[in-house]
Amino acid sequence: MLLGSHVSISGGYVNAAIEAARLGIDTIQIFTKNQQSWKEKTVTEHEGKEFKAACIKHGVKQAFSHAIYLISLGSENDDIAEKSMLALAMELERCKTLGLTHTVLHPGAAGTLSKVEAIIRIGDRIKNVLQVLKGNPVKILLENTAGQGSSIGGKLEYISDLIDHIKSKQIGLCIDTCHAFAAGYDIRDPKGIEKFFKETDNRIGLEKLLCFHLNDSKGELGSKLDRHAHIGEGFIGLTPFKYIMQNFPHIPKVLELPKENDADKKNLQILRDLSKK
Ligand SMILES: [Zn+2]
After folding, report:
1. pLDDT at 182 over 80
2. Which of 75, 106, 125, 144 is the most buried (most CB within 10 A)?
3. 211 C-alpha to center of ligand 1: Å?
4. How many domains would you assign to the chain?
C-alpha cells in the first residue's frame, strides 16, 4: 500500500525495520542521526548492509530519511550556513550507505532577505552540495511547511521557484497535509483539495511529488502552526485523507504523529479503511 510511519532508529537502524513489521507497514521514514544535534555521524558499510537486509526481511519497500530540523540553508549566519550544507551532505551520504533513495528537507527561511534573494541563496547552497557529492544519487524532497515566520516552504510558488533555480533531477516534492492547511490551503473538502493539487501540478508538476506526510492539524486554517494531530482529530477532517488515499495510491505516505498508546496502529487503520470507502 506504500503506507507507513516515521519510526525510531533507537538501538540501531535495524530496529526501524522491525517496528515496520510490527505495524504491518511497507513504508517508513527515519532520522539517520539525532535530529536535535549538529554532531555528525557516519554509517559503516556493515550497518548499511544490515539495514538493507532488514528492510527486505521485514517487507519495507520504501524508506525515506528526514534531514535534521537544524538545517537552515537560507541562514545569513555563515557558521550556520556552513553547518547546514555539511549536515545536508552528510545526510545524503548516510542515505546512500543505508540504501535510502530520498531525504525530506524543509527548504529554510528568508530571515531579513527578500523571498527572491532567499530562494537564490538556498538554491545555490543546495546546488553546491549536489555538485560536491556528484555521483550520490539520493534525491532531496523539498517539503512544504506551515509558513511560519519567514519560512519559504509555506507557498507552492516559492517551492516552485526554488526547484526552478536548482534545476536538478535530484529534487522532488513532499507534501505535508498539516503544513498545507496551516499555511492557508483549504483542503477540507473535495473541491479544495482538488484545487490544491491542480495548483501543485501547474506550479511544480505532480510527477515531482514523491512523498506525502499525512498529518491532521491542531492549528486552524492559515494558523501557520506546525502542530500535527492524529488523523481525524484535528481541523482537517477525513475528506482530504480519503482523497489522497484513493487518488495517489502509487505515492508513498508517511505518518508523523505522536506514538502514545500505539496510536500509529489506529491512524494507519483509519487510512487503510479510507482507501476502500
Ligand atoms: Zn512533515
Report:
1. yes
2. 144
3. 10
4. 1
Give residue for cell 505516505.
253
- How remote is the CA of residue 164 from the centroid of ligand 1, in Å? 22
3-state SS assignment for residue 142? strand
- Per-residue confidence band for 247, with pLDDT thresholds at 50, 70 and 90: very high
Tell me how far the alpha carbon of residue 146 lies from the centroid of ligand 1, in angstroms: 9
Query: Residues 226, 182: contact at Cβ < 8 Å?
Result: yes
Distance from Cα 49 to the centre of ligand 1, integer Å: 27
For the stretch 120-124, contacts whose Cβ atoms lie closer than 8 Å and that sit 24 or more positions apart, written own/partner, are: 120/165, 121/73, 121/74, 122/73, 122/74, 122/152, 122/162, 123/162, 123/165, 123/166, 124/165
184-227 confidence digits (pLDDT tens)? 999 999 999 999 999 999 999 999 999 999 999 999 999 999 99
275 CB-contact burial (10 Å; exposed 0-12 / middle 13-18 / buried 19+): middle
Q: How far apart are CA 270 and CA 65, in angstroms?
A: 24
pLDDT at residue 98 tops 80? yes
**From CA 138, how far away is CA 124, in angstroms rounded?**
18
CA 161, 166, 167, 168 dihedral sign is: negative
Q: How far apart are CA 237 and CA 231, in angstroms?
A: 8
> How far is the centre of ligand 1, averaged over its atoms, from the C-alpha of 263 (Å)?
17
- Across the range 55-83, mean pLDDT stands at 97
The four Cα atoms 217, 151, 96, 264 give a dihedral, to 10 degrees, of -10
> Is 21:7 a contact under the CB 8 Å cutoff?
no
Q: The domain spanning residue 11 has which CATH number?
A: 3.20.20.150
Q: How many other C-beta atoms are found inside a 10 Å radius of the C-beta of residue 128?
A: 14
